[in-house]
Every structure is written in structure tokens, then in C-alpha cells.
Amino acid sequence: MTYRPSTRQQERIAYRRGRAVRSVLLAAASTAVVGLGLAFGITGAPGWERVKESFFDPETAVEYLPQILEGLLLNLKLLVVCATCALTLGLLVAVLRTLRGPVFFPVRALATGYTYSFRGLPLIIVIYLFAFGIPGLRLQGTPDVLVLGAAAIIVTYGAYLAEVFRAGIESVHPSQIAAARSLGLSYRQAMRHVVLPQAVRRVAPPLLNDTVALQKDVGLISLAGPIDAIRAAQIGVAQDADFTPYIVAGVLFVLLALPLISVTDWVTLRAARRQNAGT
Amino acid sequence: MLLECRDVRKVFGDHVILDGLTLDVAEHEVVALIGASGSGKSTLLRCVNLLTEIDDGTITLDGDEITDPRADPDAVRQRIGLVFQSYNLFPHMTVLDNITLAPVRVHKKPLKDAREQALQWLDRVGLADRSDAYPDRLSGGQQQRVAIVRALVNSPRLLLLDEVTSALDPELVGEVLSMIRDLKGEGMTMVLATHEMGFAKQVADRVAFLDGGRVLEQGPPEQVLGDPVEARTRQFLARIIEAGRL
Predict the structure, then answer these.
(1) Residue among A175, A198, A201 whose CB faces B86 most closely
(2) Which residues have a Cβ under 8 Å from the Cβ of B97 and sit 6 or more positions away?
(3) Fold classified for B3-79+157-242
């Protein structure tokens, strides 16, 4: 005989369905109210016409789009290089900070000092120091300002990422190291095959989140001179006394961030599911 | 003697865990350590495997002093297997990878041979079909059997078992115990800390009762568990019987 829900269960299902319909309707109504309120509030403001002209001018937007896109390509390249290097640097520093034994004291001290100072230093100051300070030394073979600016970003973000990696390493239970060592693995092997894979998996969501932040901050390199999307927009603003190029650059940055943000959300969700699946 | 512990002392802060403990284990012998929680059973096993540094005394394995600070702990641990109460499998690796990690990385065995050997072992303990599963898909009893296999593929001279059935549901204890019984049949030298008095009686050649960081009484299981000499041992066993575990 096939299963048929009891009358009581059918009542329950009908009731729950009713509640679900009601909450969808409520959500739609409240969204409409908020949306209309915002639209009237902004477009009804006394200065709206002027703001529309100087921030949302379609002609200016079209005029400067190619330059800004060209600049964005530089941002994208910088993002890939900086993210790769900063992640590598962060992982290295995090591992150095976990080393035990007196021999490694200077290494540990240096790594600790690095994460403390570069997490405190504003990125803008580091960029100025690297991009204008280092060429000022007049050493032979000083690299391009672009490379120096990228190095400033890598060094600053490396300090943040090192702390994220370290938190991950410390979150792996000591019994895992004990198990690895009991099998005869050396400290290095235990770190490489047992601790780090688990640590990196666990901190993947915050690492990706920092990468999203990094993708905006690579724009600060324009302070040192290279023409990225923000600098290109700034040039446009200065020429036409119209802020629209900034809005164009802003929209492009958001579009650039979207894929990375959705990957971050997906990884976070997956990590949460794995965590709930049991130990 | 395969293993000789002489006057071993271990202190955590003000707390004396091992207070001049002396214990010998002969080759092919199975010794069960019993005693209340905190009597030093687990600590002793961790000291033998050099996961915990002792504060005095000596431990020798095959005549080599392994507590010599110049001894290489990695090399010592390659000769001793340790199985933990909470299995401690590596959650990011499949069953097969858990087992082959040490043979491949430490003993430099070709991956193919290591896998073959691991599969043979898994087949023996009835887990061949779970070789590609991750530990969180296995029952506690299955995880513990994998953990024992993981220790055995390194062909240790000595196997230490630290309360290997304490975290298991009662109906899963049997499968792990029968595996240990088989190992005894093959002549594996084992030291096991346990709360399973019935099992200690069946499998151990000798039972050692730990109290206050020393071996207070030791001898054949029938004698120590059936007719103990020391008052403390009698008290301990009375409590165990009261709890319905003997």
C-alpha cells in the first residue's frame, strides 16, 4: 500500500503553504515601499538636477570609457600578480612564525615584527615610501615605479594574509600533529602534508575576502604615477570638470569584483557545509 | 627486553604524573595498563613515543636509549606505532592516503607498492571497499581500524594503544578488539592502556595496575584482576565492578 499523508499532516502542509505565500507577498510589498521611497527621496532632492549632470552624464561616460577600460586592464594585471605574491609571502611568514627552537629566534622575531608593523602602516604611506623613497636612494638597477608600487601592495597585504594563515594553522588540533609525528613524519612533513592542507581549507573564505579588498586597493598605485582605471578617470574629471568618469570606474570595479565575490560566497558556503557534516 | 622504562618521572606544573615508574616489556608480549583516569597510562605511552619529554629516568627500545637527547625522535617513532583514543585520522585525506602517507613520505616506498600493501591490510580488516572514503564517512569502529592499519604499515617493533575503544559505541568495540586479538596471534608486541577489564583478561599476558604514577602491582591477568594483592588495586576493581565493567 502506498503512503498517504494523514489528514492532520495534510492540514499542516496546507497551513505552511499559506504562510509561505503570505511571506512572499509581504517581502514584495516592503521592497516596493523602500524602493519607491529611495527613488523619490533622491530624484526629488533640490539639487538632483545638478548632481545628475555632473555625475551621471551619458556622453561623458561614453567619451572616457575606453581610457578607463585600458586602465582597468592594468588593475587586473596588478591584481593577479599582487594576489599571487601576497598569498605566497603570507603563507611563508605564517609558517616562519610557527617555527620553534632557539635557532629560529631571529626568523620568528623578524616575521613577527613584519606582521605587526605592516598591518599598522597605512598602505598609502608604504606606496610613497617604496615608489618615491627607494628611487631617491639612487641605487643602480632600481626597478620601475610600477614594480615598486606593486611591491608596496604585496608587502602590506602579505602581512594581513600571514595572520589569516597563522590563525588557520593554529586552528588545526594538536592531536593531528601528534598523529603525524607518531608515524615518523618530521615537523616539516607534518606541516606540509597534515597541517597546512587543513589550515588553508579552513581559512579559504577570509583569504578570498582579503583578495576582494586587494582588488580595490591595487587602484592606490595611481598615487605613484601609473595610469590605472582610477587615474584615467581622474584625468577625465580634470578635463571636463565632470565627475561621471569616477562613476564609470566605480561601476567597472564592482563588475570586476562580482565574480570574485561570488566565488568567495560559494567557498564559504561549502566550508560551512563541510563543517556541519561532522568531524 | 624490547622496552625498558626505568624510574620514569613526568611532571606537569606541580602535578606529578609519573613518579619513578618502572616497566619492562618482552618481545611478543602484550601488556595491559589499567588504573584510574589520571594514573598516568596515556602519559606513559606518549613518553615512550617521545611525544612528551620525560623529566627523569630512561626508556630504552631494543637496547637503545631513546630518551637520550641526541637520539633522533623521528627515527625512534618509525619503530613505534601509536594508536589514539580519538583515532586522529587526517580528515582531508582518504582512507588510502591516510595509510600510505608515512610509507611514501617517511619510508620512501613507491606509491604503487604502498597502495598495494594498504589495500591488502584493508582487505584483511574488511574495509577494502572504503579505501576511497574520507574519515567522516566511516563509523568510529571503522575509523579506529583504519588508524591501527595506518600504524601497522610502518612495521613497528612495538604498538602502543591508548584507550582505543573508549570513544566507541558499545556495539562497535568488538570489531576493534578482535583486530587486536588477531595481532597478538601474529606475535605483535603491544602495550595497551584500557578500561576494558574483560578484554585485558583475554588478550594480555600481563596486567600492570598504575597508581600514583607507579606500577603498584603487575602479574598475570587472572591474578591481578582476580586476586589482587594490593588494597588500592582491590578498591579500583571494586569500583569497576560496581560500574558494571568487569
Answers:
(1) A175
(2) B90
(3) Rossmann fold (3.40.50)
